[in-house]
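Q: What does the assembled structure look like for these inputs?
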Amino acid sequence: MKQIGIIILLFLPFFTIAQVLEGIVYGNDKNGKQPLPGVNIYWQGTNSGVASGDNGTFKIRKTNGNHILVVSFVGYETQELHVHNLDPLEIVLEPNLELGEVKVVHKNRGTYLSAIDPIQTERINGAELHKAACCNLAESFETNPSVDVSYSDAVTGAKQIRLLGLEGTYSLLQIENMPNLRGLATNFGLTYVPGPWMESIQVSKGAASVLNGYESIAGQINAEYKKPDSEEKLFLNTFFGASGRLEFNGNGNVRVYKDLLTTGLFVHASDQAQRNDENGNGFLDEPLSRQIQVFNRWKYNNHKGYMAQAGFSVLTEDRQGGQAAFERDMQPVVSNPYGILIENDRLDGFFKTGYVWPNQRTALAWLSNFSKHQTRSFYGLNDYDADETRFYGSAVLTRDFDLLGKHSINTGFSFIYDNFSENLYNQQLERTEQVPGIFAEYTLKPSEDFTFLAGIRTDFHNLFGTFVTPRFHFRYNLGEHVTVRASAGKGYRTANVIAENNYLLASARPLQWTDDVFQEKAWNYGFALVQNYTLWERDLQLNAEYFRTDFQTQLVVDRETSSENVILAPLDGKSYSNSLQFDVRYQPIERLDLLLAYRHNDVKQTIGGQLVEKPLTSRYKGLVTFNYTTNLKKWMFDYTIQFNGGGRIPRYPVEGMESMQFSPDYYEFSPYTVMNAQVTKYFRYWNIYLGAENFTDFKQKNPVAGADDPFGPDFDATNVWGPIMGRRIYLGLRFNLNYD
Amino acid sequence: MKKLVVIFLILMLGGFTSEISAQKKGRAVVCFQSDMDCADCETTLYEYLKFEKGVKDLKVDHASNTIFIEYVEKKNNEKGFAGAIEKKGYKAEKISDEKYRELVSIAKESGHEHSHEVHRERE
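A:
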């Protein structure tokens, strides 16, 4: 498999017969038309792009397949132009500012890799989000080669993501460019972002910009919700799963005052009331659950440089798992069936605002969010209750040093307040983090082919003292087909030892921890090579990337040293991850998009004094996705195959173990394959989708150890490496009405 | 596993080849001249017309201000399409195929040709 990747890389053909289109871009501001340097200009649906030069001029290669030229620049309205000959163009951009938002231009292709962004970023837009049932953020990555989604345990239904083979906690999760869904929301947070509410997702790997904080060790995932000033008037989605899952989502936009003040209302409800125990171990395969969420957002844009957005959401969720015979009103005692009950209530709010000076060279932005989260739960006989209150605020000043935007700087300050109050094993844990910080990031962009980004921040942590975060990014276009990127950076994060690992309570062994909070530190280095070609008039994209993460301090979950406890302790020794990924995107026949991807994970950690493979982590992942649409896109067919490599299962020593004979699958799980398929039929205002997840019905055998005696010493529902649920057939309906 | 992939590919290819053949029996073509003035109108009209009864192929172009519709004869007629275009607030003046080709080629020469591919990309 590795060799195939290398062969693909060596395969560097130059098929294109291209012509050159020239033009000039102006910005229309107060003083009239001014040449605009640094404007991104690219062909829609491709990644071949350039930036305008000092006097606004640009040259871009045009091939037969390229028709729509997209011209975009921060602070201006994006323009899409139909271009069919080589006459010089004169383009005038109108000012507009959407600070703090990533502008995503609609493309036919669901996911693409940007050639312009200095950070290796995968953009997933609405088209991709239609390819899977996609009821929430966790399920949005089924067709994505970079992000793995797996169950944390066999009883709570919690899903976790992995980027570069590392747990989701090492990726900075953001909503609308503000850190979110952390702390108490770590375990279930991915299910708090309903798929139909999202407009797009950006996944970037490696060190992220210092503007977003000192976190993001493996990468950064940002979800953008739909905007209230978009074309969409009303959107409704209903989903029926054959196993009893019901979902309803809706959102509507109202133009309160012209296009200046707009508001959007979002609702979500999901319900799983049917008890499913397919493997017959007496435990529910998925918990009974109910979630209700309401979100209201407002946007004010005076179209003269000032913009403000605010919103709030309320969420309530409860989950009941464990033995199928457990009833909600039962007491958690040994004489009753084993039960798990988790109740989460959450309040979220955000406010962001920005202003751009009329000279377009200076901009000021403020981003802030707030959340209050309450968890009440028990796992068998273990109670876990917790409260978290969190605030984040950040002010950023952007300044271009010269008219051409060759040198620019982003600088500002941020503040984090995070208060935890937890109770486990009748032990009360209280702590407050207060972290003021300052940052600066310098961008050097001497030409459209070269970007260098250097960022540094210093944070003053009330618990861990002062620390410095340096980050570097580099991008260079080697000719028109090849883009190279490199990055290096340090990352820190606070390990909330209990809050992030409370799913481990679904085990007979109690948790043992040395500190309930400490700081994890790591360096990340990355290198990526993206190549874009035109092969038989269709775009071919080849991507190769390598990322290395080196931990200096880390929270290690040790399930294998002690038969008495699951030990949560600081790393003592080495811990690293190497991730090597190749992917190819092409249309072998008209309207059939094909993605082939392969990633090798080498994740090792010192556990109990020995450097071993990180348990429950697949050694590789292969992905093949097909997306076919009929002419006029009335039908869409999706088919995904995921190949997951084998890995290590953590086992703890038991008495007389030396003399016992274990089959090889006691310490190892084998590679397995999961397939999903979906058909979507589009009507004028409706579309209907029918699909099957995991339709080959592959399941991990015995996900719950000691299931026949859940209060006994062998009970463990946390050794999970594969799917718990088998084939899931679903049917859904979407309704969509736009403003004309 | 492998078998499944192969079967899937065969099905897809099979479905594809059947579509290649040009204008089939029972199909008719109608062309209109319209008065769209922006790319957005083009998208709106395209998205609306493609779901009119019987539509099998569609080209909407704001540069030459033309609309090309191939449809199943039994399922719809010229009046029906004209009505649909007018309902969306645009002019629908029926033109001949020759006139259509002429208008498109003029627009093409002046640098505004739009192939069907373009419209599909915009979805």
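The mean pLDDT of chain A is 87.
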